[in-house]
Amino acid sequence: MTGSSDRREPPISHLRVPNISEISFERLRADRLQRLQQQMHRHGDAVCLLYKPANIRYATGTDLMGVWTAGAFARYCIVPAVGAPILFEHRQAIPISQRIVSDVRPAVVWQFGGYGSEQDARRFADETYEVLRELSLQDEPLAVDRLDTLGFLALQDAGIRLRSAGRITTDAREIKTPEEVALLKINGAIGGAIMADFEAAIRPGIYERDLLAVMCDSLLRHNGDGLVTRLVASGQNTNPWMNEAHDKLVMPGDLVGVDTDANGYEGYVIDVSRTFLCGSHATAGQREVYATAHGIVTGMAELIKPGMTFEDFVHAAPRLPEKFREQRYGSMVHQAGLEMEGPGIPYPEDVAAGRQIPERVIQPNMVLCLECYAGEVGAPFGVKLEDQVLVTDDGCELLCTYPYEEKLLA
Fold first, then answer.
1. What span, in angstroms and rounded, lies between the C-alpha atoms of 366 and 337?
2. Mean pLDDT for back-to-back runs of 10 residues, the chain (410 residues)
3. Nearest to residue 345, comparing CAs of 289, 296, 379?
4. Which residues make beta-bridge pairs with 233?
5. Mode of pairing for the β-strands spanning 142-144 and 162-164
6. What fold characterizes domain 178-409?
7. 99: helix, coil or strand?
8. Which run of H or E residues covers position 295?
């Protein structure tokens, strides 16, 4: 058991409370909007309608009830390729968003209107058309990131041609601006603090849900936004991966896996996985599985360099041993920013099964999450490891430097 007397101190001496004087939020917002509008010009789109909370935040710098609005069509923005965004906000929150955005209008919400929903959706579509006419863009297609059925049909009925905004937002957010890089580094340090609190709490008899609570408490106390998943698992719950925190007691000798999956300070993702040992002595089997996952994640980090294509990476990355391949993770690499982003890099086995390799090139200021799950089918444990890195001019830099479990590496 890891107790207070033998707790390893992580290398997070650079951790500090985020200092807003060190981040230019005006530059952050301006640079992100510029990148978005550049991609609109590149893809030939004159105007976007954005509903996803991360896209609204990227375009306007505002965020409100991000978890709720991820599933509710309650706020949105219209972004022309030239000019300032127009934000449509929850009525009570308009004065709050006006601190950042000059043009804020009441949002039309139809999702909770019962029998009146179709009428509300038509009103939304009519108002959207009027805004497009106000911008002299009523004859242009409208690029949309997401809509429900009523909203989609209402815009079509209003004579608005629709297309996907996905290629615009994906390409805009792939390369991080200087202020985004600074925020991601702050959040990497917060990730280290979260892991330190989490590891210190591991002991026989603690519930998985209580370890989840420790992680959530640490995140919020370090100015984070909130957790995206509840991926804490111990013992047999670590195989297969993706069990979320249960009413299971952690027992002596258990492996304890965690994936932070968090939105940190100013919403930027903290995505790091570690697997710890509850106790002092690992078995040979635990060490073997841990060494496999560790070797693959660190091997991928050593491989990264600007100019390498995703296809090159697929063929050059360390291979997962055959006995672990059936339960391999969903991808080797994914991207991260204001949310889990893409496209990612698939395993060779998935490519052989027909999955396409995105035609992308690794570039400086991309943020990549390198993942590996190692666990045999039916085994009593598995190991999940993940590092989040910033691509640099000559390789990559760890955003969270929290150490691996020495007891499992010995």
1. 9
2. 37 48 90 98 98 97 91 94 97 95 96 86 97 97 96 96 97 97 94 96 98 97 95 98 96 98 96 97 97 98 97 97 97 96 94 96 98 98 98 96 93
3. 296
4. 257
5. parallel
6. Creatine Amidinohydrolase (3.90.230)
7. coil
8. helix 284-303
3-state SS, 145-210, equals: CCCCHHHHHHHHHCCCCEEECHHHHHHHHHCCCHHHHHHHHHHHHHHHHHHHHHHHHCCCCCEHHH
Residue 40 contacts residue 168 (beta carbons within 8 Å): yes
- CB-based contact 270:194 (threshold 8 Å): yes
Q: For residue 30, what are the contacts with CB-CB under 8 A and spacing of at least 6? A: none
Q: State the pLDDT at residue 113.
A: 78
Residues 6+ apart with CB under 8 A from 116: 110
Residue 208 near residue 191, CB atoms below 8 Å: no
Residue 259, CB half-sphere, CA atoms under 13 Å: how many? Answer: 25
Residue 207, token pair as written in the block: 């519930």
Other Cβ atoms closer than 10 A to 191: 28
- Please report, for the chain, the start and end positions of each structural domain, with discontinuous segments joined by +: 46-164, 178-409
The domain made up of 46-164 has a fold known as Creatine Amidinohydrolase; Chain A, domain 1 (3.40.350)
Q: Which one-letter DSSP state was computed for residue 116?
A: G
| Interacting residues of 288 by C-beta distance below 8 A, sequence separation 6+ | none
Burial degree of 332 (CB within 10 A; 0-12, 13-18, 19+): buried
Q: Residue 238 carries which side chain, given as an amino acid letter?
A: T
What is the amino acid identity at position 71? G
Confidence (pTM): 0.92
* Reduced 3-state DSSP string for 302-342: HHCCCCCEHHHHHHHCCCCCHHHHCCCCCCCEEEECCCEEE
Give the per-residue pLDDT at 179: 96
pLDDT of amino acid 20: 60
Question: 246: Cβ–Cβ under 8 A, 6 or more apart, which residues?
Answer: 208, 209, 233, 237
Nearest to 240 by CA among 376, 348, 371: 376
* Cα–Cα distance, 177 to 364 (Å, whole number): 11
